Amino acid sequence: MADSYFRKGFGLKGEIGPQLTADYASRLVDLIRERDYTLEVGPLTFRLAREFGFCYGVDRAVEYAYETRTKFPDKRIFLVGEIIHNPHVNARLQEMGIVFLRHGPEGEFDFSGITTDDVVILPAFGVTIHDFQRLRAIGCVVVDTTCGSVLNVWKRVESYARDGFTAIVHGKYWHEETRATASQVMKYPGGRFLVLLNMEEAKLVMDFVEQGGDAAPLVERFGKAASPGFDWTRDLDRVGFANQTTMLAGESLAIAAAFRDAVARRHGDESARERVRSFDTICSATQERQDAVAKLLEDPPDLMLVVGGYNSSNTTHLAALAASHGVRTYHLEDANGIDPQAGTIRHQPVRQKRDVVDAPGWIGDARVIGITAGASTPNNKIGETIARVAATAGISIETLLR
């Protein structure tokens, strides 16, 4: 395994560094940092959150993918799903000849064409135990870019399963990371998991824990979010909480606390301490970006722009956080969502999954514009967004970069 499984890089950062800079750096973003995260151009003031964009785990995953292409120039290289949730980064990897593996009709990745001579990259989200075992059985080279923060959550849910606790994961059951995390409990006989999207779903489960009743509605509601053979009467007796690392930290902690209270009402405080385990497994980068947005909003801008993939969980939560403070918020996938000539903006409305093109004049009388970006958004896409906003107001920032 030592010769075909890699997790620590290939020591090629010096070789790939110039290409990474060319692909993802932004002189404009560097300039804003130098000016204390504020840029004044004409009548507009841009305020950049102090933590934004690529986190350590994303940096590592992208660098490792570039190193892999350099290390194995003549081999076929495959990637399980997407390296991160950013369309531009993924498109760049495809341009480098990395082939993306997709889910088949039954929901499994198609590994049928992979041979022992091939290289397969695992994404920052990780993969399920089943998929990992399938790849190891093939005997191909496996390059594992799974984020360290995700691995920490895996250790937590494994400990729950080992001790006979059901792992309750605050997350999106369809998300790659949550699927991989939930699968970790299956290492142990009797391992069980349940994925809860939000407090609304948690309350349904808490009501059942506290009052009992008919489990049929829960079976139907959580069919895809629970482990096979989940027994609603038995498997909620002892539970341990974890979360998808990119969820809103406050909501994760609130769900765990409310669940403990429900158990205490049913069984007493002392029993609740024995039956419910809870740890905050939000990654530090996610927390830092959420905290930075909250700090920026202490002096609210006129509007807030959040840049990142529409399918990026941490990005959508940044947008939701900004909107929850009453600030007009736009979640843009990238700078192309802004058309300076037409004066329109294409965005994904907060907590929705659809594109909208706003009417001309979306900036209105806004003069102070807040900016942040998800942990999978490269700096060049942030810089391009700022430049297009300025262009919409008839301002060119090119002179600032000379």
List the helices and strands and how they pair.
Elements: E1 5-6, H1 13-24, H2 27-34, E2 38-41, E3 44-48, H3 56-71, E4 77-80, H4 87-95, E5 98-101, E6 119-122, H5 129-138, E7 141-144, H6 148-162, E8 166-170, H7 176-183, E9 193-196, H8 199-211, H9 216-221, E10 239-243, H10 249-267, H11 269-275, E11 276-278, H12 284-296, E12 303-307, H13 313-324, E13 328-332, E14 338-339, E15 344-347, E16 356-357, E17 368-373, H14 379-392
Parallel strand pairs: 1-7, 3-17, 4-5, 4-6, 6-7, 8-9, 8-10, 10-11, 12-13, 12-17
Antiparallel strand pairs: 2-3, 14-15, 15-16
Helix pairs in contact: 1-3, 6-7, 8-10, 10-11, 12-13
N-to-C CA distance: 51 Å
For this structure, the CATH topology of the largest domain is: Cobalt-precorrin-4 Transmethylase, domain 1
Counting DSSP H or I runs of 4 or more residues, the number of helices is 14
CATH superfamily of the largest domain: 4-hydroxy-3-methylbut-2-enyl diphosphate reductase, catalytic domain
Account of the 3D structure:
It is a single chain. The chain has helices at 13-24, 27-34, 56-71, 87-95, 129-138, 148-162, 176-183, 199-211, 216-221, 249-267, 269-275, 284-296, 313-324, 379-392; strands spanning 5-6, 38-41, 44-48, 77-80, 98-101, 119-122, 141-144, 166-170, 193-196, 239-243, 276-278, 303-307, 328-332, 338-339, 344-347, 356-357, 368-373. α5 links the parallel β6 (119-122) and β7. A 5-stranded parallel β-sheet has the order 1-7-6-4-5. The chain has a 5-stranded mixed β-sheet with strand order 2-3-17-12-13, with helices on both faces. It starts with a strand and ends in a 10-residue tail after the last helix. The model has no long low-confidence stretch (mean pLDDT 93). The chain has 3 domains: 24-55 and 285-401, Cobalt-precorrin-4 Transmethylase, domain 1 (3-Layer(aba) Sandwich), CATH 3.40.1010.20; 57-147, Rossmann fold (3-Layer(aba) Sandwich); 158-282, 3-Layer(aba) Sandwich (Cobalt-precorrin-4 Transmethylase, domain 1). Helices cover 40% and strands 17% of the residues. It has 14 helices and 17 strands. It is an alpha/beta fold.
